[in-house]
Amino acid sequence: MTSRERVFAAFAHEQPDRVPLWFGLSPGFAAKAMAATQLDAEGLRQRLGDDFRRVTAPYRLPALPLPPGVESRTVFGVERHGLGYGQPIAHPLAEASLQEIHDYPWPSPDCVDVSTLRQQATPWGDEYAILGGDWSPFWHDAIDLLGMEGLCLKLIDAPDLVDAVLQHVVDFYVASSERIFAEAGELIDIFFIGNDLGSQTGPLLGPALFERSILPHLRRMIDLGHNAGMKVQMHCCGGFRPLLPSLIAAGLDAVHAVQPDCAGMDLRALKADFGDRIVFNGAIDSHHVLIDGTPPTVRERTEEVLAIMAPGGGYVAGASHDWILEETPVENILAMADAVREFHQPSR
Length: 348
Fold this sequence. Notes:
Elements: H1 3-11, H2 27-37, H3 41-48, E1 52-54, E2 72-73, E3 79-81, E4 87-88, H4 98-103, H5 117-121, E5 129-132, H6 138-146, H7 148-157, H8 159-184, E6 190-194, E7 198-199, E8 202-203, H9 207-213, H10 215-227, E9 231-236, H11 244-249, E10 254-257, H12 267-274, E11 279-284, H13 286-292, H14 295-309, E12 315-319, H15 330-342
Parallel strand pairs: 1-5, 5-6, 6-9, 9-10, 10-11, 11-12
Antiparallel strand pairs: 2-3, 3-4, 7-8
């Protein structure tokens, strides 16, 4: 099987020749791994056996100066500072009225640069499963714009304000991905979006509030991908098991990255209860195993996860975090990759 055929078999809940592999590599880890293996970026992914590749369309925004202490500004104008993506310095719509929300300078999708999408995908031909579309983290953007506490209170006390913010944010992301799909949709297999809806101890919203306030917007994204002929996969951290029935009913094809150390995310129960209706991507513990383990313990735990999740398809092996972080030992990731490639697939 090619990588693309392998991934599509797993998404069809059929048994592929081997379990597909997924690797989200942070820039820091990728640089460290390339230095350790003496490989370039593509060579590293081939060494790992990664069955996916990704095309991206960056935002081209006006080069406005950043004030002192500000390290970045989001497409929605939220200024941030700190490590990694940083944290918002302020929440511009925290005290806004409904009219002020509508009058806010929402971005135009014209800022999405689709000019290199075909060039990005050309070298891979039909070999790999191609991910694309705007990441669309509308829940995170609502948190940035309103503040976490303010958002949670307004979901109960002023849901019309939250609805308006989410509508504008999702309108932008839908239009952004429509531009991407119009330019290169036939090259993209999986519409990949991200919204962290869980914490270490459970979902951030209960099922009823999630279905009322968040799911309609998520369904727009799912329908957008399906109408373009793609599968739809969502990154979601934390213990979101109570939301899975709603996600499945909305048509979501796959969830990533499945954190087994979070509340409700027992792998055997997830596979038994939902494994024939949604694809699970991830589940190999980044938090404890990949960062703190050794190659033998990584291999052992990887084989244990595969024995639970692989039968019958519907599973993509990978780390339980969107990005493999720089502090992760390279030898542990190589051990995980080798264990997956050498694993003998059981049948159901």
